[in-house]
């Protein structure tokens, strides 16, 4: 495979979606998408896709990969094993990505 | 009698490189294009009109002057040229720096700085660069900058693509400006301003600030930085065309 030629994943089926406004800590125990408005922290036990229109104002961490799709917005620190921030996503914060990242720990 | 002397006959001559047409004396053997500086063989052209076809098969390339941005078409094999726009000397040679050098380099060729090389000029401009040593001045490249070994850039880099090779432990102060950044080795820097950053499975990027449109950190790769996404500038809107208030006077006739 050509270096950097990894195809962008198609948006996953959302585990949390809709006109939902959440406040506090959310833990996702299986891989999937997130499409809600969260004022707080999101911890994912495996890979998580932040879908378009999702808003997170807090810490985002995953024990696997985080995908930020175009249209999503995350303001806060982010920790993961791998990251795919796509063009059109909105992000601002400190990132720590790598095999030794403690992503997922609450 | 004064004023009765006729000036020698002139003829239009077309540049084979840029098609610019200019008037030249018919007796001239050759001239240079006033637009791009290419040599135009006039007599040989005459011969070809007479049936003796003479064709020059010279591979050419298009460039812009680094000083005045003048457009030129020049032979691929040229080692130097003079800009018809600003008369600057243009260097097309490749430069290898394997020891300390204080020369300011401005070339359309490639600059290679070996592991023990130090490019000490205030500014180093090139088409492409392979850096394994140190560059003390600002590095500006039109194409690709490849970093390997313990490459150190002390005054930043501005390039189309920055590639940090596998196994490299590179450092760039204070910032990187490049639309495409690919990291397979290790890079420590102040600020990265890029469109797209890819960090491979062995890559490691440590920066104070990264401003990008998109970033991909593959599994095994590492990145520690403050990150901000950039917003694409809105496309310029088309000029609004005013619709005339009065009716078209020809409309009656056209009906």
The greatest inter-chain interface is formed by: A-B, 24 and 25 residues
Q: Note the quaternary state here.
A: heterodimer
Order of helices and strands of chain B: EEEEHEEEEEEEEEEEEEEEEEEEEEEEEH
State the helical fraction of chain A.
under 10%
In order across it, which strands form the biggest sheet of chain A? 2-4-7-10-8-5
Number-wise, the strands of chain A total 10
Radius of gyration of chain A: 13 Å
- Computed structural class of chain A: mainly beta
Number of helical regions of chain A: 0
Portion in beta strands of chain A: over 45%
Radius of gyration of chain B: 27 Å
Q: What is the number of helices of chain B?
A: 2
Uncertain ranges of chain B: none
Which term fits the overall shape of chain A? globular
Counting helices, strands and paired strands, the structural category of chain B is mainly beta
| Structural shape of chain B | elongated
| Cα separation of the termini of chain A | 35 Å
Q: Which terms summarize this structure?
A:
heterodimer; A: 106 residues; mainly beta; six-stranded parallel beta barrel; 56% strand; globular; B: 255 residues; 2 domains; twelve-stranded parallel sheet; eight-stranded parallel sheet; 2 helices; 28 strands; 5% helix; elongated
Describe the structure.
The complex is a heterodimer of chains A (106) and B (255). Chain A has strands spanning 14-28, 32-44, 48-50, 55-57, 60-62, 65-68, 73-75, 78-80, 82-85, 90-97. Chain A has one domain. With 106 residues, chain A is mainly β. Chain B is mainly beta. Chain B folds into 2 domains: 9-76, no CATH class; 93-229, no CATH class. The model of chain B has no long low-confidence stretch (mean pLDDT 86). In chain B, a hairpin with a 6-residue loop joins strand 1 (10-14) and strand 2 (21-25). The longest helix of chain B is centred in the first third of the chain and has 8 residues, at 42-49. Chain B contains 2 helices and 28 strands. Chain A binds chain B through residues 3-4, 6, 65, 78, 81-87, 89-100, and chain B through 182, 184, 196, 198-200, 204, 212-229. Strand 10 of chain A pairs antiparallel with strand 28 of chain B.
């Amino acid at each position: 495979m050509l270096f950097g030629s990894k195809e962008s994943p198609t948006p996953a089926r959302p585990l949390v979606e809709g006109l939902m406004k959440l406040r506090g800590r959310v833990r996702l125990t299986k891989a999937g998408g997130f499409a809600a408005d969260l004022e707080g922290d999101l911890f994912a036990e495996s890979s998580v896709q932040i879908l378009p229109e999702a808003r997170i104002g807090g810490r985002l961490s995953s024990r696997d990969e985080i995908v930020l799709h175009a249209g999503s917005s995350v303001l806060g620190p982010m920790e993961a094993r791998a990251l795919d921030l796509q063009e059109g996503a909105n992000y601002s914060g400190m990132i720590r990505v790598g095999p030794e990242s403690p992503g997922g720990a609450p | 009698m004064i004023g009765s002397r006729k000036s020698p006959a002139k003829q239009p001559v077309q540049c084979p490189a840029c098609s610019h047409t200019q008037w030249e004396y018919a007796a001239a053997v050759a001239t240079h294009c006033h637009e791009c500086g290419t040599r135009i063989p006039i007599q040989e052209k005459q011969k070809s009109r007479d049936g003796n076809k003479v064709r020059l098969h010279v591979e050419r390339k298009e460039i812009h002057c680094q000083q005045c941005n003048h457009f030129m078409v020049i032979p691929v094999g040229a080692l130097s040229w003079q800009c018809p726009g600003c008369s600057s000397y243009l260097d097309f040679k490749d430069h290898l720096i394997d020891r300390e050098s204080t020369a300011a380099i401005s070339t359309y060729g490639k600059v290679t700085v070996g592991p023990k090389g130090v490019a000490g000029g205030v500014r180093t401009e090139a088409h492409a660069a392979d850096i394994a040593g140190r560059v003390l001045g600002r590095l500006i490249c039109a194409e690709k900058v490849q970093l390997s070994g313990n490459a150190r850039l002390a005054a930043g880099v501005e390039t189309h693509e920055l590639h940090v090779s596998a196994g490299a432990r590179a450092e760039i102060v204070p910032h990187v400006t490049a639309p495409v950044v690919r990291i397979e080795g290790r890079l420590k820097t102040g600020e990265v301003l890029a469109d797209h950053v890819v960090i491979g499975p062995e890559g490691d990027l440590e920066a104070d600030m990264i401003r990008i449109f998109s970033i991909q950190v593959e599994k095994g790769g590492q990145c520690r930085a403050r990150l901000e996404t950039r917003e694409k500038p809105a496309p310029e809107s088309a000029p609004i065309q005013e619709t005339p208030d009065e009716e078209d006077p020809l409309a009656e006739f056209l009906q």
